[in-house]
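ok trying again, last paste got cut off:
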Amino acid sequence: SLTVTNRDLAIDRTAIIGWTALTHLAHLREEKFDGNLFLENLREKGYDICDKPIFYASQNVSPADVPGFLDYEVRLTTEIFRTANDLGHQLLVRGHPVEKDDGITSELAKNYGHTHLPFKSCDLKDLLRSSYATVAGKSDVLVEACVLDCNVGGIFIEPTKEEIKRLSRDAIEAHHSLPVINRGAIPYTETIEGISRIFETITSENP
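nice, full thing came through this time. structure:
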């Protein structure tokens, strides 16, 4: 039912992404799922959640083979929290599975007024499908959210001079290995100044 112009535009903007390991996620889009009920269940557990929450998947961990990674990720989280506050967005934040529930992510979320969800508090796929939009840094969550047809954006920032001294070139450019990034399937930024643009894009009525 598309006009020739709109069809060509849609084809031009389409990027085929994903791995065979994620094929099952595509089937979830066809299943009946009540995101409002999922969010209400979380509210009943005592979590403060607005009607259109934005999910942020943080990665504030310290891999032994990537010195400097934690410093970068904590700074990234701080900038995301600050920008979300400035724009009036509430974030639902869930940390990396190896991070303690009362770790730095929980502390930062509390300081900025966002809602931290312990890793085992809910299923990731349900959280993605229930959230109004999703943001993440160097995480496969970006791929999963894209396959689930969620409003999603990638947020990366420039490493500081001190971080560059400790991070390898591969670590600095790791996000380019994600298919949703190297194929241009989702919007993303690599600057602090661009974070607000990502929030505006993924919360737009026509992202």
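cool. The mean pLDDT is 88. The radius of gyration is 17 Å.
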